[in-house]
Write a structure and sequence with these properties.
By secondary structure, the protein is α/β, with parallel strands linked by helices. It contains 16 helices and 30 strands. Helix 3 runs parallel beside helix 10, helix 6 runs parallel beside helix 7 and helix 12 crosses helix 13.
């Protein structure tokens, strides 16, 4: 295929080759591989960490450019609905490791005493399955008899200060997952505080918890479903009335705690410069198509950051991923986007939450223009397709939707797949399911590892094929005996090249070939095919041997690191081993987790602390003159009968000095 062919008509193979050359992340056959490895080591690896609800989705994420995936363990993951068997996790590891990518498994709930032995056995099983690291919350894992598997501190650990990050890093965590609420300046302070060799991980895309992660007990108090046990009922996505102290309704039936989704695609370079090495996409319950689109989009964005970094950064895994579609995060599930607090400024009125619905509204594509008939007469702003999903807000501001059965040839009429209520003229229709885009996503991506080859003759009876894969720091030489030198009647170098480049059924793509055998020397095609096959098998084995495996960090935290500190239920201590860990580092009084010592419902209980502020979202911050627009005492009254049966009002209090909003569950007697 011509090298001048346009990107639109290039094959995935050609796109991979062009991408490899453009990124200049492979060396030619004549380069010194040792110096290449040294150069690679000097660059800080940047990792795109994608979610996976199962092994199939993990494979999709790797294909679309993830450097690592995280998925749920068989138990004790913070998304109980996303648990996986050891066998499926092993399958994901086998696939990921071929690209030097990692598989992290979440064991990030609190653990009860009678579960400690089961968790210990499970961790050993995960280790033998090839898992690279565990993402954990409970400190008992630092006291268990475990294999030397790396431990990462989950955002559920509520790492709200640089000092806590430093303590956890010294206690044995090799990677720290930072709170979503941090700014770039905050991240720099964390990077300065943690020991050398500790990686910082931060979320860049997906759903936002309105409360600091690990410190939300709204679901537990309201319905007995603990977020710290993987069973969050998503109280923040429910509708509420905002009422004053007298019970007068100020705002009726809105999703007042439901935040937009995070989108920091434009902040990757700044985050890397601030100290982030792992960029995390949220969504372990999301579909494979969501993971494919978002991962591909961020992979391309991260490649652009690296390409413009003047050699400071490199990708943490190997291989070039080329999707068959143009990634666009706006065309997949989202609640609208926010950068949250990354730039250190406070978002303005209406910039952070999604009050109308916690669902994905989509993008506006049409407006109802009226008329009678079996279809909906519209003016369209974008091409529609049979199978599209459309939504709208009804007269009660409820978001409703329908599937498109067909669209008239002139695009003037939409025929729904089922019954739809009469729509008012002027109603905006949003596309929340893009059939054409989903079909494009289904075609997937191709990920290949660039390699170079050098074919040479050793002596009159032997030939050798040197293969170099700089992305995985693998390099081998395959030798075949019994290949005497024979002269051909016609030039053979083109024929030899055509045989050596036949890599279609492998994970490799050839980006450099040097052939020093005489052009008119004959080498049988079968011999070259055997040599190529043996060389690639050797390369696979060498790559597996040289693959860097993160190991467990030792606990070097001082014995008095927590001296004089009293731990409360906010610290989520639920078992004896976690208690022993904290006591060994100087903690004084240690209160049990709320899951262990449940409140009796007779007094207010703090269930959330948020950087999101309802007053600020409404343009009535108490630190501004507009604060007087709202009463000082505000409450949320649940609309859901299930929630209101368990708790009374949710009292809002505002710590303006720290710019925090607290949510307290009031006793049922206080309605």
């Amino acid at each position: 295929m011509s090298r001048t062919q346009s990107p639109r008509t290039q094959s995935p193979q050609a796109k991979v080759e062009d991408s490899a050359r453009r990124l200049s992340n492979v060396v030619t056959a004549k380069d010194d591989s040792t110096s290449s490895k040294v150069k690679n080591a000097e660059m800080r690896p940047l990792q795109l960490l994608a979610p996976a609800r199962d092994a199939d989705t993990a494979i999709v994420a790797i294909d679309h450019g993830a450097d690592a995936v995280y998925m749920g363990a068989p138990s004790h993951g913070a998304r109980a609905a996303a648990a996986n068997s050891i066998e499926d996790i092993h399958r994901a590891c086998q696939y990921a490791h071929r690209y030097a990518a990692c598989v992290y498994v979440t064991v990030n709930t609190i653990i009860y005493d009678d579960e400690l032995d089961d968790v210990r056995r499970m961790v050993w099983d995960l280790y033998h399955a090839g898992v690279d690291a565990l993402i954990v919350q409970d400190m008992s894992l630092l006291r268990m008899d475990l294999p030397p598997i790396a431990l990462h501190a989950s955002t559920q650990c509520d790492i709200r200060t640089p000092q806590k990050a430093r303590f956890l890093a010294r206690a044995g965590f090799g990677q720290i997952v930072l709170p979503r609420e941090l700014s770039l300046d905050d991240i720099r302070r964390y990077a300065e505080e943690v020991p050398r060799g500790t990686s910082l991980e931060a979320f860049v895309h997906g759903a936002l918890c309105v409360c600091y992660s690990g410190d939300c007990r709204a679901s537990l108090v309201a319905g007995g479903r603990s977020a710290n046990r993987g069973c969050c009922a998503q109280m923040c996505r429910l509708p509420y009335d905002l009422v004053d102290a007298e019970g007068d309704v100020l705002v009726h039936g809105r999703h007042l705690l439901s935040l937009r989704d995070l989108n920091r695609m434009g902040d990757l370079a700044a985050m890397a410069d601030a100290g982030i090495s792992s960029f995390k996409i949220e969504g372990r319950l999301k579909s494979a198509s969501y993971v494919a689109n978002v991962t591909a989009a961020y992979s391309q964005a991260l490649d652009a950051v690296i390409a413009s970094s003047c050699g400071r950064y490199r990708r943490a895994s190997a291989g070039i991923s080329v999707p068959t579609f143009n990634p666009d995060v706006a065309r997949t599930f989202n609640r609208g986007f926010t950068r949250y607090f990354i730039d250190g400024t406070m978002p303005g009125k209406g910039e952070m939450a999604s009050w109308d619905t916690p669902k994905s509204v989509g993008v506006p594509v049409a407006r109802v223009v009226g008329g009678r008939g079996p279809g909906i007469r519209v003016h369209v702003d974008a091409a529609l397709a049979n199978g599209d999903g459309l939504g709208y807000f009804d007269s009660n501001r409820e978001y409703r939707g329908f599937r498109v059965n067909r669209v008239s040839a002139d695009l003037s009429t939409i025929f729904p797949a089922g019954a739809v209520e009469p729509l008012r003229v002027g109603t905006v229709l949003y596309r929340n399911y893009d059939k054409a885009f989903e079909d494009a996503l289904a075609r997937g991506a191709e990920r290949r590892i660039p390699i170079t080859m050098s074919l040479r003759r050793i002596d009159d009876n032997r030939i050798a094929l040197d293969v170099n894969d700089s992305g995985r720091s693998a390099s081998i030489t395959a030798v075949l005996d019994g290949v005497p030198s024979r002269q051909a009647r016609t030039p053979q170098d083109v024929v030899r090249a055509s045989i050596l480049t036949r890599l279609g059924d492998t994970i490799y793509t050839l980006v450099g070939l040097e052939d020093t055998i005489k052009p008119d020397e004959f080498v049988p095609a079968k011999t070259l095919t055997t040599l190529r096959r043996q060389a690639l098998e050797m390369l696979d084995r060498d790559a597996a041997v040289v693959r860097t495996i993160e190991s467990r960090h030792a606990d070097t935290a001082a014995a008095d690191a927590l001296a004089g500190r009293d731990l409360t239920f906010h610290d989520n201590v639920a078992n004896a081993q976690a208690r022993d860990f904290y006591m060994a580092h100087g903690a004084a009084k240690i209160a049990p987790a709320m899951e262990v010592d449940k409140p009796d419902g007779t007094r207010p209980v703090r269930v959330m602390t948020c950087r999101y502020c309802l007053r600020r979202e409404m343009g009535a911050c108490l630190r501004t003159p507009q604060g007087a627009q709202l009463p000082n005492r505000l409450y949320l009254r649940p609309i859901s009968e299930t929630v209101s049966a368990s708790v009374g009002l949710l009292r809002l209090t505002f710590d303006c000095a720290a710019c925090r909003m607290h949510v307290d569950a009031m006793p049922k007697s206080e309605r």
